[in-house]
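Field log, afternoon session.

UNIT: design team B
ACTIVITY: writing a sequence onto a fixed backbone
BACKBONE:
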């Protein structure tokens, strides 16, 4: 863990202005493949890759590294191999430990470092191989700088077609690459960012584990018992069509958000980036049917059929489009209904309804007649719902912590990879 942080005075800090930004005076900022030490290239890019066809693949042998490994971030992903004879023909395209692979097509600029225990193999033509000499330059630093906002912005600006375009080897070789003067500083930056990555990955693993535990708990707690009773959804809840005309109101600048199924997360947060807004008068029409203060549930009936979301107050008033049916519990615990709608008991019903069908929506009658099985007492419903809601709260807290960790890492990258903060 790096503990010593030096904050240079403002005059010594960002005094070198370049096409890609400002960097400390003592940093080198030169075309990527011109980096040298004692006249020896530190980075060798290329070759462009091998042309292979599927009839040349074998079940095991020498691995073919392509975009699927880079995009997944997993060098062990995938199962395409070639035999020793073909490998020897393509030896110039082979990878070694500490090589850095960069995607050239599709999602350009994605980066993968080949670990020491990776299988020997070759790259395909969609990748560029960067061979780093670790005695002169930090492999970790190269990886993080390639992933930095400054470098990625430069690559995507040059790539044909932008983010989903094509990046040539020549563009990458000529891209300006900033680098601190000493290997110790490069390694310190890489270590700090690696520590931040480790925290993010640990939280991701913990959240995945908690979600699996919750799935198991739902399976156990929501499996109907002998004493449970079956009811149609409209017997235990109001099932409301939020906009019966099913004609979207005309758009109105600076009006009220008219939220569809893709605009709300499961927890009820607004996630849409291009919200449809309608005249505030539509609020009066909807107010007679539902109130967002009433612990409501949204149930998808168009496109994302069966998607379950919370409907709750937001910072501004909003309306629900007919892509969702609105569920307001009656005589039952609303949180129990929410979790039951999320369960396999209901997803199986939707799968049966949609089996063999080409339709992309279901009617309100279908929603109203979904079968809900209930414990006989309200108290037992609440106990089940409380256990699952507590698990949701724990996962939400971890997700908030993960979002904060990712934000901190991004801030660290912006500061460390531009020399605004120096590690010594």
């Amino acid at each position: 863990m790096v503990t010593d942080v030096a904050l240079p005075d403002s005059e010594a800090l960002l005094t070198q202005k370049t096409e890609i930004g400002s960097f400390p005076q003592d940093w080198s900022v030169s075309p990527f493949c011109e980096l040298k030490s004692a006249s020896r290239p530190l980075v060798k890019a290329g070759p462009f890759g091998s042309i292979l066809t599927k009839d040349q693949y074998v079940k095991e042998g020498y691995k073919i590294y392509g975009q699927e490994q880079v995009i997944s971030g997993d060098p062990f992903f995938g199962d395409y191999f070639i035999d020793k004879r073909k490998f020897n023909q393509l030896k110039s395209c082979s990878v070694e430990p500490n090589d850095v692979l960069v995607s050239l097509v599709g999602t350009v600029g994605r980066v993968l470092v080949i670990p020491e225990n990776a299988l020997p193999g070759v790259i395909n033509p969609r990748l560029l191989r960067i061979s780093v000499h670790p005695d002169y330059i930090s492999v970790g630093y190269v990886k993080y700088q390639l992933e930095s906002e400054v470098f990625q912005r430069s690559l995507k600006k040059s790539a044909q077609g932008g983010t989903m375009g094509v990046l040539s080897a020549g563009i990458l070789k000529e891209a300006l690459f900033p680098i601190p003067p000493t290997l110790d500083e490069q390694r310190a930056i890489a270590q700090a960012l690696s520590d931040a990555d480790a925290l993010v990955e640990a939280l991701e693993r913990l959240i995945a584990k908690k979600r699996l535990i919750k799935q198991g708990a739902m399976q156990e707690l929501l499996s109907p018992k002998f004493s449970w009773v079956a009811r149609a959804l409209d017997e235990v809840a109001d099932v409301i069509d939020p906009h019966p005309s099913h004609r979207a109101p005309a758009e109105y600048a600076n009006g009220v958000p008219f939220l569809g199924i893709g605009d709300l997360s499961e927890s009820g947060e607004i996630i849409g980036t291009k919200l449809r807004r309608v005249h505030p008068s539509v609020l009066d029409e909807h107010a007679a049917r539902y109130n967002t203060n009433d612990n409501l549930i949204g149930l998808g009936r168009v496109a994302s059929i069966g998607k379950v979301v919370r409907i709750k107050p937001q910072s501004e008033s909003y309306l629900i489009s007919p892509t969702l049916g609105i569920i307001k519990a009656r005589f039952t615990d609303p949180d129990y209904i929410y979790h039951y709608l999320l369960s396999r008991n209901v997803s199986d019903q939707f799968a049966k309804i949609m089996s063999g069908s080409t339709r992309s929506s279901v009617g309100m009658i279908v929603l109203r007649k979904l079968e809900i099985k209930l414990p006989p007492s309200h108290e037992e419903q609440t106990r089940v719902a409380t256990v699952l809601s507590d698990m949701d709260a724990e996962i939400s807290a971890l997700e908030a912590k993960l979002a904060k960790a990712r934000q901190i890492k991004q801030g660290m990258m912006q500061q460390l990879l531009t020399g605004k903060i120096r590690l010594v």
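LOG NOTE: The longest strand covers residues 251-259.
NEXT ACTIVITY: expression trials, pending approval
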